[in-house]
Amino acid sequence: MRMTRLFGRTLREAPSDAEFASHQLLLRGGFVDQLAAGVYSYLPLGSRVKRRAEQIVREEMDRAGAEEVLLPAIHPVELWERTGRDQAFGETLFVVEDRRSRRLVLAPTHEEVITRLFAGHARSYRDLPVTLYQIQTKFRDEARPRGGLVRVREFTMKDAYSFDLDEGGLDESYDAMYRAYQRIFDRVGIPTVAAEADSGAIGGKGSQEFLFLTRIGEDTVLLCDCGYAANAEKAEFVRQPSGDEVPRPLEEVETPGVTTIEGLAAFLGVEAERTAKAVFFTATWADGREQPLFAVLRGELQVNEVKLANAVADDGSPPRLRPMTDAEVADAGLVAGYASPIGVGRGVRVVADLSIPGSPNLVAGANREGIHLRNVNFGRDWEAEVADIALAEPGHLCARCAGAGTEGRALRSEHGIELGHVFRLGRVFTESLRVSVLDEQGTQRVPTMGCYGIGVDRLVAAAVEAHHDEHGIIWPATLAPYDVHLVALGASRDAAVAEEADALFEELRVAGLDVLYDDRDESPGVKFADADLLGLPVRLTVSSRNRREGVVELRVRAGAESERIARDAVVARTAELHAAETGALNGAQASARL
Predict the structure, then answer these.
(1) Which of 139, 137, 63, 83 is nearest to 106 (CA)?
(2) Radius of gyration of the CA atoms of the chain, in A
(3) Is it the case that residue 556 has pLDDT exceeding 50?
(4) DSSP code of residue 468
(5) C-alpha closest to that of 452 among 47, 175, 127
(6) pLDDT tens across 136-176, in order?
(7) Residues 164, 129: contact at Cβ < 8 Å?
């Protein structure tokens, strides 16, 4: 492609609202153009990068045995109402009406539709296992689109769905997709961490997300040197015991104006872990039913709302939580700042964190203004359902490596961008949509499902975040829109330079290389700056001096030095470099994931 014919232009400065490197460089390089908040057009250069990313995803899905389909992006809302996910997605769901006032969903994902499709074509165990995938546009009404392609309202996703007769089959399908994801991220040159994660509105019994660790990431992941990794919404940790005393008698203590854990600990001269923290929520289920929740944790811990919602889920469907208003707290018979788990009314559901049963003689509220209780003991003075509802934080001890004579290593936290997510859906959708197949004995069985998503746009953004410098993008060879950036200097004034550059352009193309040919009438400074900004793997420069000396200057974008290669050897050398880099990404690393 000659740059004189290339649609789009480079920018010297990024728009002021572009925060991240990927956002700035993709806009400056003319890869994308913003239409509205969270809505982007791909220009020719960006479209080529995206197609290359999609092709890698497609090849690895096919390699793993998945079959490609293409599903509608517009769904009848009734299908989503049958699974309750119209409520689970809430305001994120785009809902429109057609001319007959029928409500339709702009698809944020396709579990309902793929399950319905499967039900119409699968009859028995002979049709299983099967994994279907598509690369399709999705729509989510994000409240705060940000970071260019990192969080958008219209995006491209590869979503795959497996159907198996039993859990053993799901394990095999899930593992096949997991390995395929590792190969995909290797091939695009993006280092990732697989972390345990909450399944969120997708549902299911367990999931893992693939994160590119970067300070700009929205996700927080807790990591341990033992190899454990989990999203903050899911991470488990060991609670250190707060004491091993014998339970002592309850004792009232006056605490006028003391309504916070910090204030209580200071007033009584105790550590925060010797107190019980009360946190109130109103839980709203998909059917509109509401219930007050009273969460009790040890004072130094923070409540994890995702864990709490999962702990009180009905049939695997967690409610939406919001903090209780002052009026709701009073209506529940609780006194804010002095609430007690002792004697809570029947209408209030109480959930205690794992830290509570093993912590004797805590200080808790007395449910009376200005009064707390010393020596509150779970099991003696009050009871409740117990669950892991606390937020894991850096410094907490890893639950995975605890035991076997060790107390566990300290967790650390990092930020990351979620690039892919794999879910063990189980029978959430096949049961709600009443799907069954015959097994070998002729008995109707409900298939079990897996779901596997990769954000293609995020792959593009993450590749830039992982590979750039102060001058511009450094594309991995597998994603670069073109393999070679050919620069002709002074061609408008030197016909011999133009002739040699034109000839080299054709020779490179014949050798199977995609070439971006800068034939513009611009200064060397502008051409070199644009070449660094666009970030193609190899730059070749033809000039009057080089032509006289019978050489072409070759510079690898990821390197600092240039080579002067004999004109008759430059095509072979360029092809060799391209094969080496693409081979390293496509071959050695990917094969190690088999």
Answers:
(1) 139
(2) 29
(3) yes
(4) E
(5) 175
(6) 999 999 988 988 999 999 999 999 999 999 999 999 999 99
(7) yes
